[in-house]
Design goal:
The complex is a heterodimer of chains A (about 450) and B (about 250).
Chain A: E1 5-9, E2 19-26, E3 29-37, H1 44-48, H2 56-61, H3 68-83, H4 89-119, H5 126-131, H6 133-154, E4 163-164, E5 167-168, H7 174-199, E6 211-216, E7 228-231, E8 236-237, H8 242-246, E9 249-251, E10 256-258, E11 266-267, H9 270-277, H10 283-292, H11 304-329, E12 352-360, E13 363-371, E14 377-383, H12 385-403, H13 409-422, H14 427-430
Helix pairs in contact in A: 3-4, 4-6, 4-11, 6-7, 7-11, 9-11, 10-11, 12-13
Chain B: E1 5-10, H1 16-22, H2 27-34, E2 36-40, E3 52-58, H3 64-76, E4 77-83, H4 85-88, H5 101-109, E5 132-134, H6 141-153, H7 164-170, H8 195-198, H9 215-224, H10 229-240
Parallel strand pairs in B: 1-2, 1-3, 3-4, 4-5
Classes of the chains: A alpha+beta (about 450), B alpha/beta (about 250).
């Protein structure tokens, strides 16, 4: 077969951040197949040095607007670990609630606004307003509801205000707990309609056996906020050994820092969590998985979106459970903290090193901090889900392109874009860790 | 009359301000009745190669490529709006300017740092003229709507010149200084309805310094509460480091 195809997707759309897809086929042979990250680096780790570790959640939240709450929670965990602060039960419950809101908000954005247009063959949600106004209204209403939940709990979703090292600067009142409960019940109905909608949509068929990596623990809960790092290949290590998992390496053609554990690459995210912790999903989420035909271990990366739908069902149900529990226990308002940079010494302080490992919407996020006895940053390192997925996406592309090579370049381009989008890459996040060589494109 | 053509572009930032726009929710549909969004890469694949009536720019300018790109966008835009702190004042990206650029590059990327030619972080108006400013990290949605209305009516929008304290007092918050904490409220532009203090935290100064900050008054406050001035410099630098390039 002699066929030449050149695909250059500059500034991939409907993903967070700037990335390019480059595929070159010459005489039927796949010569180049890359996902390039072209976001401008921002150097967060460098400028954290010299600042107070208490400012870390505020600053690192600004790495990404979509995963702002996730970065905040990983940052708080790393800082508290370094400082030797143990969160109270109430604080832990509220943080779990916040993480559920984060997963929901991000998943709904991805499912409806970023992925759904491809499944019905339109370039964005805008043309859908005319033909499916109910669906668009539902999507925007769900998005709005998630935002309102965050507004109530932490002031806002993009860069949460009240979640800080040591706890919360503001705690929800009884009325606010009730408000959140009411909204989650509203969300339940829309979520049911979402499952129904996606049950009728068809995702591309493609499989590649992959090592999936996510937090695992011995508790009954679906692990999101705490755990060891586990793999579908049967391995498990403590979060402090994350460097043995990520094994960052450079690929010669792109000088890009990527990660691998037991195979050439691994994947993180909703599908990884689903594959590792399916048993711990609540019954309603399992029901949704059955309806949507998703079973562990699923190795079709396009179905990451379906795993996000299943997780969304789980998060709504578990958020309701947490709120009812908090209701029962009653909120202890004496636990409010306003540490600022702990200038008044209200929190314990010491020199130390700490690691935060949290499952954020796109997968495992790690923050690793080191501070001196005044709480001033000595070193910082962040490992972002998208970095861990980049090499896996490329290996998927390498297997996929030969399988669909007889399709038109437009169809191949769309399949590749959809593949990258399925991973829900967060390129703003990943860029401060990825090293790339820019070609002469753009 | 055809609808004004509106576009969103992002530079070095977290894209949270675009998200704040997307987060407006159902009212967005009404908004799309009066403007035509022709480019919004984060949520749309549509592209436009003509002129823009209004361009919203998110993010700071941090490399040569960005300088060229923003100049081209400026040429194609009748009205250019800086959206969010990274665009209006440089924001957190400005903290990079406290270090030598080569050192910063080496710290994050090791010897491969040369692949990442970086410039001192600049706010958008430090590279091309800006017509409207929407401050905040992230932007405050009610202010975005207000500014959009001004743009569509062709009238200017005046960012409040008074500090966050004015709004904070109206919201009846207890002063952070009375709680023993150093807050940026007294020298930061209002317009956010004292968002952070309402939620129990301090003001971090994300909206930029007031046009005529009452520095003498501020020094008195610092003296009254026994807070060293250099301690405050660090706080100002979190968002306002780029001001020295104005």
């Amino acid at each position: 077969m002699s066929k030449n195809i050149n695909i250059n997707v500059n500034y991939l759309t409907r993903v967070e951040g700037h990335g390019n897809i480059v595929v070159e086929v010459k005489d039927g042979k796949l010569e180049i197949c890359r996902l390039e990250i072209v976001e401008s680096p921002r150097f967060f780790e460098a400028f954290l040095r010299g600042r107070s570790i208490y400012e870390a959640p505020h600053i690192t939240s600004r790495i990404c607007g979509i995963c702002a709450c996730g970065h905040t929670l990983a940052s708080i965990q790393a800082a508290e670990d370094a400082l030797g602060i143990k969160p109270t039960e109430q604080t832990t419950l509220l943080r779990k609630l916040l993480l559920h809101y984060e997963e929901l908000d991000s998943h709904i954005l991805h499912i409806y606004l970023l992925v759904a247009p491809d499944l019905v063959g339109v370039p964005s949600f805008v043309p859908l307003i005319k033909f499916h106004p109910d669906v668009v209204r539902r999507a925007l209403r769900m998005k709005r509801l998630c935002n309102e939940l965050c507004d109530i709990l932490v002031g806002r979703h993009v860069h949460p205000i009240s979640a800080v090292v040591g706890g919360f600067t503001k705690l929800p009142s009884e009325v606010e707990l009730e408000e959140m409960h009411k909204r989650l019940v509203e969300l339940q109905k829309d979520m049911e309609a979402t499952v129904e909608l996606f049950n009728g949509l068809k995702f591309p068929e493609f499989e590649r056996d992959t090592e999936y990596v996510a937090l695992v623990n011995d508790e009954g809960e679906y692990p999101l906020l705490y755990g060891d790092i586990g793999s579908t290949d049967g391995y498990r290590v403590s979060k402090y050994e994350y460097k043995n998992v990520t094994n960052e390496f450079i690929v010669p053609y792109a000088s890009a820092k990527r990660t691998k554990w037991h195979r050439d690459s691994y994947a993180v995210g909703a599908l990884a969590r689903f594959n590792l912790n399916y048993e711990k999903l609540n019954p309603k989420a399992k029901e949704a998985a059955v309806t949507l035909g998703l079973k562990p271990k699923c190795i079709n990366p396009y179905l990451n979106t379906v795993a996000q739908i299943v997780e969304s069902v789980h998060c709504i149900e578990d958020a309701i459970r947490i709120i009812e529990l908090l209701w029962q226990k009653g909120i202890n308002h004496d636990e409010v903290v306003v540490p600022d940079i702990n200038e008044k010494g209200i929190l314990p302080q010491r020199s130390g090193e700490g690691v935060g490992a949290v499952e954020v919407p796109r997968g495992l996020l790690i923050h690793h901090y080191e501070c001196d006895e005044r709480g001033i940053f000595r070193n910082a390192n962040c490992i972002i889900p998208t970095n861990q997925n980049t090499h896996n996406i490329e290996l998927d592309m390498l297997k996929l392109v030969p399988e669909i090579i007889n399709q038109s370049p437009e169809e191949i381009k769309l399949s590749l874009e959809m593949l990258v989008r399925a991973y829900d890459p967060c390129i703003s996040c990943s860029v401060h860790m990825v090293v790339i060589k820019l070609g002469n494109r753009d | 009359m055809s609808k004004p053509k509106v576009a969103f572009f992002d530079f070095a930032c977290c894209e949270g301000c675009q998200l704040q726009v997307a987060n407006i929710g159902e009212p967005l549909i009404d908004l799309l009745d009066i403007v035509q969004v022709v480019e919004f890469r984060e949520v749309m694949s549509e592209k436009w190669d003509g002129e823009f009536d209004v361009s919203f720019i998110e993010g700071s300018i941090t490399d040569e490529h960005a300088v060229e790109r923003i100049k081209k966008i400026r040429e194609r835009s009748k009205i250019l709006v800086a959206l969010g702190s990274c665009a209006t004042i440089g924001g957190v990206n400005g903290m990079k300017n406290s270090f030598p650029l080569e050192e910063v590059g080496k710290y994050v990327y090791g010897e491969s740092y040369k692949f990442f030619p970086t410039l001192q972080t600049k706010a958008v108006h430090q590279v091309v003229p800006v017509d409207y400013f929407i401050n905040g990290c992230p932007i405050y949605q009610p202010e975005f709507i207000t500014v959009l209305k001004c743009i569509l009516q062709g009238i200017p929008y005046y960012v409040p010149e008074y500090p966050v304290c004015v709004e904070c007092k109206l919201n009846e918050n207890v002063c952070m200084y009375d709680r023993g904490l150093t807050c940026m409220g007294p020298v930061t532009k209002a317009g956010c309805n004292s968002w952070c203090i309402n939620n129990g935290n301090i003001c971090y100064g994300c909206r930029g310094l007031t046009i005529n900050p009452n520095t003498e008054g501020f020094k008195e406050v610092l003296k009254k509460y026994n807070i060293p001035e250099d301690f405050l410099i660090k706080k100002i630098e979190m968002y306002n480091k780029c001001k020295e390039l104005d």
